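Predicting holo structure, aspartic acid bound.
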Amino acid sequence: MKPALAMGAGPAPDAALDASGSAPGSTTAWPHRHLLDTDVLTWPQIELVLDTARHMAEIVAGERPRSTALRGVGVTNLFYEASTRTRVSFEVAARHLSADVVNVAVSGSSIEKGESLLDTMRTLEALGAKVLVIRHATSGAPYLVAREFGGSVINAGDGRHAHPTQALLDLATLLRHVPGRSLRGRKVVILGDVLHSRVARSNVWTLTAAGADVWLCGPATLVRGFEAWAAAGVGGERRFTVTTDLEAALRDADAVMALRIQKERMAAGLLPSLHEYAARFGLTRERLALAAEGCLVMHPGPMNEGIEIASDVANGPQSLVTEQVATGVAIRMAVLSLVTSVAR
Ligand code: ASP
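Done. Tokens:
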């Protein structure tokens, strides 16, 4: 890892970013006009996002004035699925960069009259959108839009496929807490409804790129299909482990990320009942005791407390859940800044 940028030791307040949209002094080139998943990111590019986000965190903390990097740039949040933290986080991030933010309320818009995704995109583009932040229930929808849109598309979650800014904020949060700021060889468990989780998929790319020993764990019906990916290796090389054995997964773990049971995407028959799931796979204090001392606890939210995670674990001293949310703003500022630095 590059050393963290010295807090407060940067350039004059308004020069928060260099001309490339990244943290001052960075040498890595950023080539991505869109951010649709983490699979396209090299490790230096991931580090660039993290370095830039560390710089952005100074603006969020009020140590630097708001940046003018995106002044006059239209950022439109187009969320076809429910969201609190991701949508608000993108909005706050865009405002910290002085962008003109528009939130499209899907309910009450022409989308309800059946307007297609591409027609909606063209309408928003004609109204000045330069960045489209899209959440959609269909995997791949942001890719379709990115093919036609003149500006930048950021995927804020597509179906069960990808959620790149969540994975980046998870990585940034974890790295802040591991000794030496390195995940190399650290055991990170992603637990629960892996099958429906775009968070899990995007995290597998970033966590294995960071050198973590990644384990996916859940009932057989909810980890199905991942064994083949694990055996082939991420990017054809980086292995990870898939198991239904919760004890084996938790033993000596350095971090556990519990996933929400996604009832809205769950086909009948995948789980006998939520009660049974909680009894067999819920992250309780007793189970967490199997992990390494001080094991970090994460959850992308929204949490079903008492189902995938017990309340005392979710709100306990090892929990990074609130910090994940806060970190999301700086990460999204970094991503907004980087993608808009790439000319068409
Ligand atoms: N908020 C995350 C997502 O949109 C996780 C979840 O919904 O369970 O994917």
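Residues 157, 163, 198-199, 260, 262, 300-301 surround aspartic acid (CB under 6 Å).
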